[in-house]
Amino acid sequence: MKILLTGAAGFIGMHCIERLLARGDSVVGVDNLNDYYDVSLKHDRLARIATHENFSNHVISVEDRDAMAELFAVEQPDRVIHLAAQAGVRYSLENPHAYIDANIQGFMNILEGCRHNGVEHLVYASSSSVYGGNELMPFSEHHSVDHPVSLYAATKKANELMAHTYSHLYGLPTTGLRFFTVYGPWGRPDMALFKFTNAMRKGEAIDVYNSGQMVRDFTYIDDIVEGVIRVLDKVATPNPDFDPLSPDPQSSTAPFRVFNIGNGNPTPLMDYIGALETALGVTAKKNMMPMQPGDVPATSADTSELADWVGFAPDTDVRIGVQRFVDWYVSYFGRNE
Question: pTM to 2 decimals?
Answer without folding.
Answer: 0.95
